[in-house]
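Customer escalation, tier 2.

The customer says the design service returned an amino acid string that "doesn't look like it belongs to this structure." They asked us to rerun it and document both sides in this ticket. The original structure tokens are below, unchanged.
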């Protein structure tokens, strides 16, 4: 064969390859366009019209004057909506779509299927009275300056008109609830009354609403307060009756529903049972590491006093000694506020992750209607209003007895207090959610994976200590291991309670003896596992997946691995699951240039 004929044949092959490539691009463009047409802004607008409270949280205020009443008619219509959207998503030519829309389709499909499962199978709306609480949406509208005050007050007035119907539907829906959820509902709805109190009346009186608008607002406000108060009274009467009749539903989800919920929510690969078994192994590994550090530190804190022979007792004795060092009860919130600038400076000085000084974190006392679940939490704005405040909710210890407060402060001692603020704020939830709002994929941000979000917060603790925060002192290493043990035992506790029928006594034994938690913390965690399911597994599942992925990239790239590039590329995909992020990222994306 001549050189010229060979060249002609090579040209034919190249042209064929080019034609195939152009055809695949055309298919991808057409498939992508179809996805965007069906599930772009028009779909999201329809979704927000049916979910106005979640829309407010996300910064989408077009339907803020609506309050969804979850009655039988709404449930029927919403199931039809979900079924239609799920069918349309499943019918898309996924194989022809490019990776961005293809992964958006997967995220949205999982999210809508999860919603359908929750509504039609798990049916928490029947047995969870705490799912009915109007306070958050109203508080956000009153405190977020997305529009002039008078416009926001008119929006609030329109929503107030629906509050009595909202709680009437709640009472009609609830059948044989769980006792822990009922107690939480009473606590939080009593707290909700503060949103509709004298401060709001004064705000209305001083506003530019017309006289007739003010009068209508105040009538609706009184009716809303009465409806909330009536709901609380009804729940208390229900509690007395079900206590007498022993008619409560067991708060445990059960193994079948638990596995289904885990599959929708976690998405790190494997089953809930497999994660539970990995957590058992990690608990043993952490105990061994903590024992080594304890033996190193024992003479420093106990001199010649012989340590207990039992490994767990020996670790526990040292942790108890170290836990004596903590902030004062009255300084807890102020000390939290003071630490945030220190963490921000460290992240900046060590070039770990970009920050945005135009979007500061606001530390506030946890509003009463949000209490009863966690002592510290983040409320972040959604991608539609990303410049709104991010709130770090910190619950003061006012309601604790002196003994409870001391127990709590020993748990969040000098070292774990730092870890808590890293986790919740910087570079944990606060910075991660700031980056998520800048993702080009609105779907991945809005319909995100909670295991990735909680996993990042746990990973950020490890990242900070690796960078030198805490001075690599063994005390910090021991306490961080204790924190990781908490994360690990969260998974063990959650699965054991909801799938294996663990008792309260067994749960407290796990938390207090094997995880070295104070009694106040352990009892708070027991309450939490009784008013949630699967959520406590997010931390261990997400952290393990992120850390394992990072270590694989480090091994592949060697000295070319760039930690900051890894962090920023990882967070650029919004709130997608770790497995999905791993499928989208390339090793070269995080290589040092």
């Amino acid at each position: 064969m001549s050189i010229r004929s060979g060249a002609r044949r090579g040209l034919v092959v190249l042209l064929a390859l080019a034609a195939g490539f152009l055809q695949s691009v055309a298919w991808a463009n057409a498939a992508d366009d179809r996805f965007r047409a069906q599930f772009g802004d028009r779909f999201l607008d329809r979704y927000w019209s049916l979910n106005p409270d979640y829309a407010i949280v996300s910064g989408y205020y077009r339907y803020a004057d609506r309050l969804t009443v979850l009655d039988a008619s709404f449930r029927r219509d919403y199931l039809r909506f979900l079924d239609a959207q799920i069918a349309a998503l499943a019918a898309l030519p996924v194989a022809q779509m490019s990776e961005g829309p293809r992964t958006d389709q997967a995220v949205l499909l999982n999210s809508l299927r999860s919603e359908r499962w929750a509504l039609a199978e798990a049916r928490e709306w029947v047995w969870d009275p705490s799912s009915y609480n109007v306070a958050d949406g109203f508080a956000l509208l009153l405190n977020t300056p997305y529009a002039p005050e008078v416009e926001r007050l008119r929006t609030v007035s329109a929503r107030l008109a629906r509050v009595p119907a909202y709680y009437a539907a709640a009472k009609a829906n609830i059948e044989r609830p769980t006792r822990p959820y009922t107690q939480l509902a009473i606590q939080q709805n009593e707290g909700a009354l503060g949103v509709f109190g004298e401060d709001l009346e004064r705000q209305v009186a001083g506003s530019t609403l017309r006289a007739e608008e003010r009068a209508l607002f105040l009538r609706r406000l009184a009716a809303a307060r009465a409806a909330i108060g009536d709901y609380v009274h009804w729940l208390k009467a229900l509690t007395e009756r079900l206590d007498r009749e022993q008619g409560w539903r067991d708060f445990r989800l059960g193994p079948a529903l638990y596995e289904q919920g885990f599959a929708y929510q976690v998405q790190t690969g494997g089953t809930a049972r497999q994660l539970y078994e990995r957590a058992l192994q990690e608990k043993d590994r952490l105990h061994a590491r903590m024992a080594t550090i304890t033996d190193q530190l024992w003479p420093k804190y106990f001199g010649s006093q012989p340590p207990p022979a039992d490994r767990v007792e020996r670790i526990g004795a040292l942790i108890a000694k170290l836990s004596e060092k903590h902030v004062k009860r009255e300084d807890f919130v102020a000390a939290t506020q003071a630490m945030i600038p220190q963490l921000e400076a460290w992240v900046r000085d060590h070039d770990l992750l970009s920050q945005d000084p135009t979007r500061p974190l606001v530390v506030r006392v946890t509003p009463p209607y949000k209490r009863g679940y966690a002592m510290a939490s983040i409320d972040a704005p959604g991608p539609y209003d990303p410049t709104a405040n991010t709130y770090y909710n910190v619950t003061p210890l006012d309601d604790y007895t002196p003994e409870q407060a001391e127990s709590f402060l020993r748990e969040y001692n000098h070292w774990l207090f730092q870890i808590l603020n890293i986790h919740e704020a910087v570079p944990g939830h606060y910075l991660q959610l700031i980056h998520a709002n800048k993702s080009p994929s609105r779907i991945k941000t809005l319909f995100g994976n909670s295991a990735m979000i909680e996993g990042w917060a746990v990973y950020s603790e490890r990242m900070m200590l690796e960078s030198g925060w805490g001075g690599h002192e063994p005390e910090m290493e021991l306490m961080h291991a204790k924190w990781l043990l908490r994360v690990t035992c969260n998974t063990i506790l959650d699965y054991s309670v909801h799938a294996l029928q663990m008792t309260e006594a067994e749960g407290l034994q796990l938390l207090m003896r094997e995880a070295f938690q104070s009694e106040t913390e352990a009892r708070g965690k027991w309450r939490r596992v009784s008013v949630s399911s699967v959520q406590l597994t997010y931390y261990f599942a997400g952290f393990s997946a992120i850390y394992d992925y990072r270590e694989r990239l480090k091994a592949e790239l060697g000295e070319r691995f760039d930690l900051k590039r890894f962090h920023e590329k990882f967070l650029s995909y919004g709130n997608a699951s770790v497995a999905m992020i791993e499928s989208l990222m390339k090793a070269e994306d995080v290589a040092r240039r």
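Tier 2 assessment: The sequence is consistent with the input. The two ends are 45 Å apart (CA to CA). The chain is about 65% helix and 0% strand. Sent an explanation to the customer and offered a walkthrough call.
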